[in-house]
Amino acid sequence: MSDAVVVTRSRRTTWVGHVTLPRVIVAELIKLTTLPSFVVSFVLAVVLLAGLGVMTAVARIVQQDGEQTVSAEPGAVLAGVQGTQLIIVFVAAVFATTEFANQTVQPSYLAVPRRVPVLLGKAVTVGSISLVFGAAGAATALAGASLLLGSAGLPFDVSNAYSAQLIVGTALYLLAISLIGLALGALIRSTVGAILTGLAVLNILPLMLGAAPFAWLRDAAAYLPSTAGLMILQQQVPEGATQPWPGLAVAVAWGVLLFITAALVTRRTDA
Fold first, then answer.
1. Where are the transmembrane segments (predicted)?
2. Where would you tag: which of 25, 56, 65, 209 has the fewest CB atoms within 10 A of its CB?
3. SS3 state at 79
């Protein structure tokens, strides 16, 4: 009589949650916040934006003591946006390309096979942080300048409506810049290439078109993201020039269109 061999199998039950956009966003947020370089860059962006605003107020006080007539427009206090945008486009481009450079994008696409939610999660993450930090930096710059100029007895007249325009407009503009940087990174997939392209679009191209010998090229410069978007810092603009909110809409449109293009390319290309 042969012995009966009974084989038993132990089964371990592993709970696996469904892939949802909120979970993808949380994963991308962890990726962003656990790298010190990204955190430091965002903090530096706020410090630059707020610090230059305070320095503008200090310069106004010093020049007043020297009996020089220098206007202190509230929009001028936020001139640091032009430097802050370079940090934002740098962070967004690196955030988009790091996984390609390190060949760690495959696990992300294995976890989220449809791919576009990964890019959307990155956009929500870097865009939200840019929005919040941009608003915080602008508000700090305006508050610091108002406090310093007021204590020195110098006027700093800014209405509530204009203050809201500057704070909200700066935040939305930096959000648009983050989308542009992220989209360029997803399209080019090269950190250096994406950063250089972003710098060219924001800084070099406006100068080149502005100095072009043809009027239609000079007119086209007004519709570049930085040229149009930075009009949000103006309270009054000459007749025929791009108005603040429509100019900001142009910058946001650049970010949205580039992001849609990057999403379509991401769906159709290999990792």
1. 38-62, 82-102, 123-150, 162-187, 194-216, 245-265
2. 65
3. coil
Helices assigned H by DSSP within the chain? 21-33, 36-65, 74-77, 81-101, 105-111, 116-151, 160-188, 191-199, 205-210, 215-220, 225-229, 244-268
CB atoms within 10 A of CB 6: 5
- Distance, in Å, from the CA atom of 259 to the CA atom of 180, rounded to the nearest integer, reads 7
For the chain, domain boundaries: 21-201
pTM of the model: 0.89
For the segment 212-239, what is each residue's pLDDT rounded down to a tens digit?
888 888 889 999 999 999 999 998 888 7
Angle, CA 30 vertex, CA 29 and CA 33 arms, to 5°? 80
**Cβ count near 17 (within 10 Å):** 6
Give the C-alpha separation, 180 to 140, whole Å. Answer: 25
> How far apart are the C-alpha atoms of 189 and 209, rounded to whole Å?
27
User: What are 78-135's pLDDT values in tens digits?
Assistant: 989 999 999 999 999 999 998 877 777 777 777 787 889 999 999 999 999 999 999 9
